[in-house]
Design a protein that fits this description.
The chain has about 350 residues and is α/β, with parallel strands linked by helices. It contains 11 helices and 11 strands. The chain is globular.
Length: about 350
C-alpha cells in the first residue's frame, strides 16, 4: 500500500478486468467518434478497430491519447480475423448511412450483405462475444444476425443486442427540455423498434413524472420518432446522426462492460429476441449480466395512447423482422443452388 508524504496510506486499487472491444466499421462517421469515446473509457483494455480501409490511421491517431486502452487498427478482409480475436464485445456501426431520398429497401439491400458477412466472421472467430448492432435498419439487421448465427450454430439471444439507446437519449433530452427538468435526473424508457413509428417512448413511465397534456405527449413522441430524419435534413444530405449515435452506442457499450465485470442492477433499453410481446424481436428494458442479457423486463402499465401506438406498429415491425429472416434464408438457398451447378 502506497502513501503520500505525511499522510495516510492510499488504498490499493483493484485492477479492472481485461476487456477487449472490437468496432467493425471504425473508420466511418459513427465509428470514429465511437472509437474515441471507447478509448476514453477505462473499462476498455484493448480496442481493435476494423474497416475496409482507413483504420490504421484512425488507430494511430487515437493511440496518442494518454489512456490505458491499447488501440490496434485492422483493414481489409484478410485482417478481419485478427480484429475479432478474443473479443468480449463487438460493436457494428458498419454500413452506409441513410441519405435524403433513400428508401428503406435501398438501405436494406446495401447493409444486409455487410452485416451478414461480419456476423459470419464473429461466429467463427469470437462466438461468445456480445454483439451490439448499430447498422441500420436495426429492425432487420438484428434478425439477420440472429439467423446467420443460427446457421453457424452459435446463436444465443442473450448475447445479441440492437442498440436503441439513441432513442432513449433523444426522449430524455426532449422531455427534459419541454418540462424544464435537470437532464441528469431524467429517464424515459423507449420500446418497440428503431425506426419511425416502431419507436415508442413511454412518457407515462418517465422519471421524474411530470404531467403532460395529450398534445405534449403526441409532439414529444413524434419528435423522438423523427429525430434521425431531423438530423439528415439539417445536414442537407451530407450526413446522418453520427455524433449522437456514437455517444449513445458508447453508453450502451459501457453498460455491457459494467455488467460483464459483475456490477449489479445494470438496466438499459435494447432491441432483443424476447417473449415480452408476440414479436420475436422487440426493444424493451433489459437487465444485463456477466454473460449478456439476464432477462427482458415486462412493459408494465402503459397509457391508452401508448397502447394504440404499440398496436399500430405491428405491420411495420413484423415486416422488417420477416424481411431480415427471409434475406438470410434466400441467400443461403442461392448459395446451395450455386454449389450444385
Amino acid at each position: 500500500m502506497s502513501s503520500v508524504p505525511g499522510g495516510k496510506p492510499l488504498p490499493v486499487r483493484k485492477p479492472l478486468p481485461y476487456r477487449r472491444v472490437t468496432v467493425l466499421g471504425a473508420a466511418g462517421g459513427i465509428g470514429q467518434p465511437l472509437s474515441m469515446l471507447l478509448k476514453l473509457n477505462p473499462l476498455v483494455s484493448k480496442l481493435s478497430l476494423y474497416d475496409i480501409a482507413g483504420t490504421p490511421g484512425v488507430a494511430t491517431d487515437l493511440s496518442h491519447i494518454n489512456t490505458r486502452t491499447e488501440v490496434h487498427g485492422f483493414a481489409g478482409d484478410d485482417q478481419l480475423k485478427d480484429a475479432l480475436k478474443d473479443a468480449d464485445l463487438v460493436i457494428i456501426p458498419a454500413g452506409v448511412p441513410r441519405k435524403p431520398g433513400m428508401t428503406r429497401d435501398e438501405l436494406f439491400d446495401i447493409n444486409a450483405g455487410i452485416v451478414k458477412k461480419l456476423v459470419q466472421a464473429i461466429a467463427k472467430h469470437c462466438p461468445f462475444a456480445l454483439i451490439n448492432m448499430i447498422s441500420n435498419p436495426v429492425n432487420s439487421t438484428v434478425p439477420i444476425a440472429a439467423e446467420v448465427l443460427k446457421v453457424e450454430g452459435t446463436y444465443d439471444h442473450t448475447r445479441l443486442f440492437g442498440v436503441t439507446t439513441l432513442d432513449v437519449v433523444r426522449a430524455r433530452t426532449f422531455y427534459a427540455k419541454a418540462k424544464n427538468l435537470p437532464i441528469e435526473d431524467v429517464d424515459v424508457p423507449v420500446v418497440g423498434g428503431h425506426a419511425g413509428k416502431t419507436i415508442l417512448p413511454l412518457f407515462s413511465q418517465a422519471t421524474p413524472q411530470v404531467p403532460l397534456s395529450k398534445e405534449e405527449v403526441e409532439e414529444l413522441t413524434r419528435k423522438t420518432q423523427d429525430g434521425g430524419t431531423e438530423v439528415v435534413q439539417a445536414k442537407a444530405g451530407k450526413g446522418s446522426a453520427t455524433l449522437s449515435m456514437a455517444y449513445a452506442a458508447a453508453l450502451f457499450a459501457e453498460s455491457c462492460l459494467k455488467a460483464m465485470n459483475g456490477e449489479p442492477n445494470i438496466i438499459g433499453c435494447a432491441y432483443v429476441g424476447s417473449s415480452v410481446t408476440d414479436y420475436p424481436f422487440f426493444a424493451s428494458k433489459v437487465e444485463l449480466g456477466k454473460h449478456g442479457m439476464v432477462k427482458a423486463l415486462e412493459l408494465g402499465p402503459i397509457s391508452k395512447y401508448e397502447q394504440t401506438c404499440l398496436d399500430e406498429m405491428k405491420d411495420e415491425l413484423m415486416g422488417s423482422i420477416d424481411k431480415g429472416v427471409a434475406y438470410v434464408h434466400n441467400t443461403e438457398s442461392e448459395k446451395i443452388i450455386e454449389s450444385l451447378k
